[in-house]
Amino acid sequence: MTVDLTSKATFDSVTVLSQTAAAYRGHRGTVPSPEILVDALLKAEKSAKQQRSTDPFESLLGKWQLCFATGTKKVRERGGIVLGKGLYVPKFIKIHVSFNATLEQDSDRGVICNQVELGPMLLNLTGPVQYFSKKNLLAFDFNQMLISLFGRVIYNRPMRSGKVQTEDFYDQPIAKLPFFAFFLVTEDFIAARGRGGGLAFWIREI
Fold this sequence. Notes:
The protein has a single domain, classed as Lipocalin (Beta Barrel). It has three helices and 13 strands.
């Protein structure tokens, strides 16, 4: 996403996110508090809405490590939801998401892979994606689960919880599918808001 650095708020938020990525990798400095990072993400999201800039699907391709995520909680008095405090993903848990393009002519379709690695155990969820560049929105659905232990596959089957079959996925309305609304996409990190309202921040796997 082209970021307008003439806005001080935008410049500050991107600076915080860049420093967070470097610190999380262990290159330099320390990661900021969850409150500071959430504030930076919200400022970046606000700036993206004001600029109405868009990103091609190609800018998301590759493997990204989840660094930070927030949950949400319902607020009865307000009749809605608010962001939770947010947590950094512990280093002993590796969570990655990767996006790959299909060989079809439609460049906005591809495959998502969500991988969780904890010691010798690996959980891998895959499924189709469709990207709507005008809204920087990526809809997806997991329909295959693989589990391996010490490098040996012990489970590899379709998921019953998959909402639709792959061939029907592209005919489904966005409202019926999980999605990420990306508001910041750079060479080094990406950030998005999920359908449930939570924020997520990934750094590129290097």
